[in-house]
């Protein structure tokens, strides 16, 4: 059986009882994280801009949109909710040995949420679909990883994620294996082109879409709906020398990574949770600063200057001191360093008054960088960021932290067990009372016992209308 057929059969046929408890529990953590990030991000200027444009085209429908009282059709709602989840760059990731491989939750969970508003979906069915989506997504992106030279020419961070999103949405819409294969054909051919090298790195501001998680979520839903409408998609879209890997610009394809151990060996432990709302490539450096703050009492008031020891690529693309937009700020090490030193709650880093705060920008201006040979080699050879921080204090003391090679939230550097819950409460702190946030978290922690996911989601998503 070819790869597309095997993937489709797995996604359509997966049952909750087939999934080990640690795997579906991990999936539940990512659902909770995505919804918290989405509610925090829905009030951002970026999310509101996209929602304004979308509202001109999307008519009313059954699917709730995060942080608003609006409801759209399933494709438009998936787009809006994925955009909200990703707006702060606080959403989850996927990593293999420290190498970033996308933002799966924004696409997959947004698509699954749309399905929950179209038909009755139990918590177990919802988690089963999310696990299927993450598994398909992780296997696909690993199977199509390019060589390092091709990566430097062409790459797409999340362009493949419509496949995982379609697996999740299609599973919840009751597709059989043949229908799933047809929907995956649509999802693959609806994918955006891989455009990482055209994000405006040399001509800021950066592109507003960042990693294109929202178009992937919309195309995931659209793919399944096209199949349900009787349309014919690309057959065997993943297979052979002309498969999706070639369409997405890769020069390598490892089909065994797609299918070997499917349904037995699980990839969800490669999914990561972010402690800070920035590009993941910055997190090793931010973790180094966090250690200095924790171990030496370093803070905004006692620092004279800060030096970042990172790869030359981070020095080239991530050192903008005065970011013009919130997206630019998410890719600015000086801005993030200053926000951490000022102890700004992560969900508030990109509020308009923060982006123009003279004190924050003055602190960011004290940040400089230099190439660390080990970090540079690690990035050039393995696409794996690393970083460390050294500071000079106002009293003349110099303090340095060791190089960090794996960011917090990765398999090699796990976060505390209660981190996801605390992050969820923190993300909702500006939206609802703490008691309500805890009650909401408690409801999600037992989602596997829920008979109707929409009944849990609807009052949360529409009851959190955000102040502008």
UniProtKB/TrEMBL annotation:
Superkingdom assignment: Bacteria
A molecular-function term among this protein's GO annotations: lyase activity
MmgE/PrpD N-terminal domain segment(s): 6-251
Any one Pfam family match given in the protein's UniProt record, by short name: MmgE_PrpD_C
Record InterPro entries: MmgE/PrpD_sf, MmgE/PrpD_sf_1, MmgE/PrpD_sf_2, MmgE_PrpD, MmgE_PrpD_C, MmgE_PrpD_N
MmgE/PrpD C-terminal domain mapped to chain residues: 276-444
Family: Belongs to the PrpD family.
Protein name, UniProt field: MmgE/PrpD family protein
Species of origin: Paracoccus shanxieyensis
